[in-house]
Amino acid sequence: MRAMLPRILLALTALAVPVSLHMVFLVAPTEQKMGVVQRIFYYHVPSAFMAFLGVGVCAIMSALYLWRKERRFDIMAHAAAELGVLFCTIVLITGPIWARPIWGVWWTGEVRLTSTLILWLIYVGYLLLRENADNREQAARWGAVVAIVGALDIPIIYKSVEWWRGLHPKVLKISGGGGLDPVMERTLLFCTITFLLLFATLFLERVRLGLQEEEIETLEHAIGRRPATAAPGTGPGGIGS
Amino acid sequence: MTYFGIVALVAAKDLRTELRSREQALSLMVFAVLVLVVFNFAFDFTIIDFKTLGPGILWVAFIFSGVLALNHSFRIEREQDRIEGILLAPIDRSAFYLGKVLSTVLFMGTVEAVLVPLSAILFNQSITPRLGLMILALVLNTIGFAAVGTLFAAITTQTRRSEVLLPLLLFPAAVPIALAAVRTTSHILAGRPFARYANWVYMSAAYDLIFIAAAVLLFDYALQE
Amino acid sequence: MKGAGVPPEPAAPSVAARGLVKMYGGFAALDGIDLDIGPGESVLLLGPNGAGKSTFLRLVAMLQRPSGGTLRLWGEDPARADRTALRRRIGLLSHQGFLYDHLTAAENLIFYGRLYGLAMDAGRARKALAEVGLEGRRDDVVRAFSRGMQQRLALARALLHEPEMVLLDEPFTGLDRQGARTLQSMLAARLRGRRTCLMVTHDFEPALPLATRIVILADGRIVLDRPAAGLDAAGLDAIYRRTTDLAVPVPAAS
Q: Do residues C161 and C113 lie in contact, with contact meaning Cβ atoms separated by under 8 Å?
């Protein structure tokens, strides 16, 4: 059953995507003030949720890794961070695309977008730091420290940017229920679920890849280090070779 | 030796080394003053009020020299693998962390103590009436910056690209402190009542507590080999 | 395995390794080490570059953690036991002195002494310096010291807290013949028979007289383990060549 999970998720995602496209472009009503452009909202918001999900999963897996020192937790943390950065990038691209036709500017300095940019920087930093470590274990440990600090910091960053800007423009405020047309709400919900399925599918694939890489390394080591018992000179630097 | 004895011991060692070598103090100071001078030319202060822009400029100078101080502090430990002498010692490594935070705060504090009066002169600004509050704001926010900075610097100085990696990681993480510092300083200079900026002060204090606690728990993982 | 003349120990060995493995990514620096070092033994660990000697020493020093197998220090598992208590019983002298250049000799010792929980003051520092012949230079900054003097100061630092076990990682590096002799005689005076000792070095000429046992590593495995009794430098050289089957570079100390 567990082996079937990735397949099931992939199938569900493959089904959900066209349905969500249908809903976003054909079912959801056109917004009064902003027009067709507003539909980007159905990608912008779920992406933001997924970015936070990535951050959260990364932090939890990082803590588990530091506690248990099991490689699979680190692989999951890394995968979650990568997905977090991916969806965060989508948020940062869709935000300006949405803003430009409406306000004529690419960047409005809106609180959530600014904070999301900072979030993006932290996790890009996380990925870069891992690249600069000497070995896997070090990358895992350092990443874990940064991920935990980053996750603790996120709410504080959002609050501080909010206070800094004073009020944030109501137009971009994503209300969670009241004020949103029920059809739009349903569309948003469905899109969120679609993105969640996408996240889960990508996550499982990425983790599987990571575990396989790990296995290959272990096998390479076993082959490379076995002493030359039969033919002399077959093992690297073996005794007597 | 007690836990805080070790903290003091490490900080004292850093200070003594710095006093003897004077490697860092001079370049930190010159750098920070340069930042100030550049901004003096960059903006026309006959038009712009220092109260508006000043705190931002000051904290840019403090933050940049803070990064220099952090890199330098750990570079000394990295050279000749001196850090291993610390790793071998039967101490709680978080005490070493706090000692480093303390010495960084003192170094940054020295820069701040020079730059604030200097900017008052350069930009014709009076700060003496609210000196106590200014000092509180400086101390509180410097501690926060040093707390996260020391943890990150312990990691990044183990890489080859630490000059790039430390700012890359630290600046976003320190955004709340930077914002709090600038707003608090700005309100203090404008003579506004404490209630106006109390929330920023509480944020700085909360940031300090949260991240010192987190770093004390996480520091060992940063240094393990 | 143990040399003649070493009595059977009732207590746990100072170091006990079983199937010890250390991996760096896919590369195994240590590939299954079985080794016991008893109290008072003085092991000279040799081997070609990359054989794993320094790696083993660093695992014993608890500077790194094993990837596999077991390592016990005085019967305790460093991963589970109180590492602080274990660290107090170990002293390390490396080719890097761990000395602070801008502090004086005395200040360095006071710093490390206090770090190790000793009640250090100028008087105690003075005594420690006298034991390595550096009393006259106690108020000079380490920056001004020669390599030989730095190593002697580092030795004083390493032994300040009277460790039961002393680890030496290439201590003779960068020393001229005279410096190596001086260091050797100081080591002989303070180590022999009183402490457990593990020496990793390429310069086995100065190290050999200090050893009670020779262990040779190659490719992360032990290829020789025998008492040092009756071996001179030439004899050891011959054994080394035969065992590792590689050209041995001329020892640096000559």
A: yes
